[in-house]
Queue: 2 jobs
Job 1
Amino acid sequence: MVVGVRSRGARLRSTAFGYANVIPFVAFALFPFYYMVITSLKKDAELYNLQSVPFLIQSGVITDHYRYLLFRTEFLTWMKNSLIISVVATSVSLVIAILAGYSLARLRYRGVNSFGTAVFITYLVPPTLLFLPLSQVVVWLGLSDSIWSLIVTYPTFLVPFSTWLLMGYFRTIPKEVEECALVDGATRLQTLTRIVLPMAIPGIVCVILFGFTLTWNEFTYALTFVSQTASKTAVVGVTADLIRGDIFYWGSLMAGAILASVPIVIVYVLFLDYYVSGLTAGAVKG
Amino acid sequence: MAVGQRALEAAGFPRPGRLERVREWWEQEHVFGVGLILPALLLIVCLVAYPFGMAIYFSLSDYWVGSPGGFVGLENFRQIFQNEVFHRTVYNSFVFTSIAVVFKTLLGVWLAMLLYRTFKFKRLIRGVVLLPWVIPTALSTLAWWWMFDSLYSVVNWTGIRLGLIEAPGPNWLGMTSYAMTAVIAVNVWRGLPFFAIIVLAGLVSIPREYYEAAEVDGARSWGRFRHVTLPLLKPVLAVVILFSTIFTFADFNIVQVLTRGGPVNTTHLFATLAYQTGLQGGNLGQGAAISLFLFPMLAAVVFFQLRFIRRE
């Protein structure tokens, strides 16, 4: 076979080539995070000294920026808000999406295709197209300036996305299994909850992960619908409220950016493979 | 079921109660199917379709925050078309989207091909590469903002030490000629993982035999890429590019955090201009009209996607 006869030298060169090319990408991806961490641990005097080397911490590590963040700002309230919003919005969306996804993937009835198209189109609608009218809907519902404005509106992008993702998973389950259950006298709802759902667990995990990530990271609605500090999410709070006029604030700003990313990083590290599979399933099947 | 009812009763089976009949009705495939999709449909109608209708109404009225105005026809659009800032925004949006998507595509395919090779720390490297896509964009953009700082920019510091930039280096976010470059760089940084991971999935699905056959036919690596990889990646690439186009075109986070559309409106996109006009300026009518300009792009992408899916 022609493929196999490459010499050891050629293989070594090929590996070296691979590493040499992938390292710039890794550095590019990681550097901003490294720089955030470095900045958040440096003394102000060093941060704003043009003679110092920005890549290093030369005059000692400090935790002042973190302490300022935790004890003198509303940071913990923002984290709590984000957590509540993410958990509630994701759970509600998950239930709605399981029902819709199953219906679209498995049941045959008039209009199922147009419903599927509607969900798909909604999936592609960017939040920035509708944020102005939605901000008024939120006012009319009496939810402006409360975290409920976000809990109510986040399903608008979570449900279409989750439905689409789950449809793919439901379709991989053999139809015979469900038919057996129905013949054995199970109701349709029982078939869904007891037979189909346990087999779609990977899909459900994906939906929870992406739901949590998308809601935690959301910026447009969170910035637009909530202006009161106590109701802000972590992302908006850090981005909008930590900047204090002309005073140098980069240390605490970067500390905030790191701490507000930590929940996502933890989830990401634990479930990396689900992210990759969900990402490919969600987009490629779309 | 209903047909057999009389026969069943005649045979001595009792007539099913109300609950039983409801259950039977619910068990019908079309009833159950519509029942399950109803919550999702309700959500889409109330919080997507209805606001979309409102956006159209807003754009045709002089609606200000706190004062519902009257119908003014196309007045908002007339004013927008005369507005220099809007012209600049249209130009920015196309420059931003086209350059960013081209870079993401080229680098994404290249990165995917690198990741396809067998590495020692394959999983780790993939995890790291995907990181920018997972972390909240608004927060990582804060780091970029600091990296492009007018005085303490680490980008300039490095560039000057390496002899690539003349001291003191450009004020990235404050100068009209550099701000767009900075915004595009951040967008590429954030969107690249999405491309790479999906293209990688596409690469993995290409049967190895194709490459072996090409190799037997004497194809060099460029030939293999050109005649095997690229044609087979086409469907995946088309989907990713369409996806990325609509979401890059509608981007808000990066510009809002990094430049707020400045300096002198050279980085405004439709979303940030709509935010500035509609919410900060309070002119909801005109803001809605501006954000509606995202719609033609969305419609085009949906159209291509649907045709594309139908073909598969």
Note: The domain at 85-311 of chain B is CATH 1.10.3720.10 (MetI-like fold).
Job 2
Amino acid sequence: MKRALICILLFVAAIVQAADEPAVAVHYKQACLLRDKGDFAAAIEEVSKGIALNPLEKEWLAKSELLSAGLYLEMGMNESASVTARQVQMLYPGTGFETKASEILEKINQLTEQSEQSEQSE
Amino acid sequence: MINIARTSIFKGGAVAGLIATLLLCTSVFAEELVIEEKTPEEIRAAMSASGLFAEAGQLLKQMNYDSAVPYLTDYLVRMKESKDERVLALMQDVRFKLGKINVLLGNQGKAQAYYEEYMSGAPVYRRREVLKSLAVSYFESKEYVKSISAVTNAFAPPPAQVVEKKNEGKVEDLSRQERGGLTKRQLKRYQEEAQEYKDEFFDDLSADKPPEEPEYTLQEKVLLNMTLAESCSGLSRWKESVEPYQFVIDHAEKMERRGFAIMKLVTSYSKLKEYERVHELIAGLAVSDIRYDIRVNMAMMNAASALFNVAQYDNALMLYRMILPRRALADFHLERANTLRRDTGMREMNITLSTNESGRVESLLGYKYADTSLDGGASGVQIEMPPELVEIEESIGSLLSLAPYEDDVIYRIGQLYYECGRPWEALSAFDLITSRDPEGDQGLRAFCDAIQVLSSPLELYDRMEKRCLSFLDAHTDGVLPRQVAYHLTAAYQKQEKFKEIKGLRPYLDGFDSLDAIDPSMKLMAEQYECELYYMQAIADLMLLNYNAAQQGFDVVLEKFPKSHQEGNVRYWHAMTQLFLQDYAVAFDELEYYLSKFPKGNWVASAWFQGGICLFAQEQYDEAKQRFAYVIDTFPASAVYSDACSMRGDILGSEGALEEAVRDYREAIKAAVKVNQATYATFQMAAVFEAESDSDEGKYDEIIELVNGYLDRYKEQADVAKAAYWLGKIKLAQGLVGEAVDAYLDTVLKYGDDIRQDGVDLIISELMTTARKLDPADRDALKVRLKSALDTEENVTLQLRLRVMQAEMNDAKIDLGETLIAELKDLTQAPPPVLAVICDASFAKKDYSRSREILKIFKDYFEESEYMRSAFKLRAYDLFEQKHYDEAMKIVGEAQGLYGVDYDTAWAQVMKGRIELAQSKLDEARASFKMILTVRIWRGEPYAEACYYLGQTEEQAGDFKKAFAWYQRTYFLYKGHAGGYWAAEGYLASARCLESLGRAGDMRNTYRAMLYDKYVNSLPQAEVARQALGTDEVLEISGKIEAGLQTNLTVTIESEEI
């Protein structure tokens, strides 16, 4: 009985927490789940919904944009990935997000170089 | 004005005498009468200069500025001739005053005129003030150049003034002139009154030199710099605007003014393309409280928009992200206000959201303005509102009353995402706006943008199509449905879904009338609709439904006369005529296009296609000139290469092979599409083949040419056609085995593509070669074909292999019959397969699919050699149906394309037969006789020609001549066509002899027929048997069995045939 009560309380707490959570965070988390399932198209659509809200919560917005850049890359949309990562760098200077965006850009550069090399060898 | 009149009458001392005089002369009602009779102008005219001056002073004291103006202006007029320095100084002061009053009254033009007069006059005691006022006034009336000049003058040191030192003296010492027309007492009184009232205007009405004008204060300098910067911006003199904006940013006291100047400087820098400075300013703004000002927010929107327009997406995005929602701004200022309230002991206020009657959310500011009681009034003690608090509360109030702009920001960010390459974010932003306001202007605009993103770059066509169709099902009025249909059509075009485009036609026809659309939007709606009908016609063109396309273009011309698409429509209308092979009409329409749209999109093409029309009408010289014109005039056009090739073709046909090769080389060099190079390359190869005397040299040239083509275009090249030419050379060099291997490899590699017409050329060449192979090699080839066929899954290649197999087994007709039943959709059959079907149909006299097959050839395989069979089948079909003119047209086309090739004799025979059927006997005779002059047609065509010449003469009633031709048929050509024409000749001869009343000769002819081993087993021999009877037939059979050979001949005198 006590255990059931604790479960109910935890559940209610979770609901309350979810209700307090900004929409951008909800979209971000849902997108992460979809990405983990390998459904990149659905994931990017989901995370974009949060970004489109133009929220004031910079932390979640930055996370979302970084996720979006990664998803573009997964989907082979390197140009979009590059633009998104570059804008993350610009919008969040001096933060960990900027560092991660730089990593994505580095990865894109490597992929581009590889692709150019393979084209040349062909 | 009555009021002014009264005032002036009762208070103007100078007028008192006049009134007294009037009162003496009139009745008791005289006063009223006089007032009504005198106009204000007349009253002022009756006043002395001092009276005018005094009256103006009174009015100014009462702050009745408007009424003072006429007195002051009249004073200036009255005193204009005065040279007295004090009067001049007084007049300058009046001008200054009039300038100020007009600024106050909003009459910028008049104010400027007085100020300008002031500045050009003397003395100028208030230079700085006047220039400041002038600068602002010019700016407000958008006279930016003058405004800049005023500010520049204001900052410049004043010009040196030569002021004659005068003893100012006392009022008592001044002359009346020096007193500006005033009495000593009046002047004194006014000065005393001025001191008493401290009225600036009145106080200023003075001829005295005021104290030295002070330097501008910092605040004034900020104002002047802002005016200068804004005027420069107004004139797009961005560089000059930078320094004054920067001054404002550095010195303005108010945060809002600094913020506004920053945003304006952002715009200037972005116009100057100094984006690093833009970025610095924006980054600086991001960390300051300036962005919490609503004016700054609005300026940020404008600056972001300006940056967006010059594709500075990163900076624009940064700005858009900084724009705060109204609620956030209000909360910020609310917190400031509440801090002040707490400090002053007042109750805090809050913002309440409520829903009004129409369901919109409204913000209400609680406890504002008036609530200045301590503790909300509990203590009953009232306190004074701090001015800063009043200002903050007013700004919150105006903020909350602003139209919502948050969605506009999201929409613009969506557009930005789209442009900079973040399509998913763009889609979500547009969808968000649509969901918030589905039927509002912005929601609908966002809907349209979203479908564009879905189409490109996301290419989620199914989702886009679903949204569009659902929208079109529900909306029929206004611009938007037309816009949506346009985007959907464009998406279908991209996918080459032309049938789907045609499927949209009912939606188009179902749109509400254009007349029902708001006039401001009608033009746009019309353009979309015009575009839609145009695209419908283009879809028909792409579906090769030329007649429907033509009708479609007619609809556009009729429904939208003089539309933006008229030029294109006219051109494509002409092209449909060309595709329908109505070359003369097509030519005329192209000429019309060129005359009406000399700068149209298709000028070069129209010239070129006109040449094609001339070429098709065999007007080769004119065509050549036309192509030469295109070559000389439009060297950069898309049709330049084609024109070179076409001129090369004509030159080649004229035997000018060197010139032809030069044109082909140019065509290859200038080709912008691979097919242009392909055409020129292989035409040139054909010229080399025909031209060169030395085989080796010829082969080398062709090999070099073809390899060069393959190197240049790689996988885009028509490899099969190249292989065909290289194989031909191998064959010519005697390398038959290698050629066969190469050919078969190419067929197996590229034969799965129906459009590879080079494969079909190879099949034809390979089959010709196979006939010359020794039996062992032939068998080996058959085995390889069977093996390939057994393993091949691609239907197109299977069909090609089956044709090759049937050809090698002499079973083409059987295969054709099988395929007629097997292939319901002939569009998937490659040309050799269609040709086999034609041959089988011809053998069975089944012409039911002749039209369909010829259309497929013309639409898809116009260059194919296999089209000959289709022409033949179609011509026979039309002939059987007695559609002689149409049949003759087909014959003409076939002859135009193939001339006197070995397998086109049928066309000349058909030509004669049509003429015969139309009783054009001379023409028929000439046509049949022409066959006998072409050596390549010796054989069956000769037999046919002789037979039909007999028919011609028989129809002409000349049985002797007819007999002679029939006899020649069975004498000379009995070995051809299995004796068919010989047998027909025998029977026709007998018929002629009967007509000539020579029954014996007729019987002898029948007997000869039965003795003739080439024909006596044919079905026609049964006629002879019937005519001769059983006994005679048995006798002849017996004699033949006994080995008797007859020498029966019938001789008839006839004219030379």
Note: The longest helix of chain B spans residues 519-542.
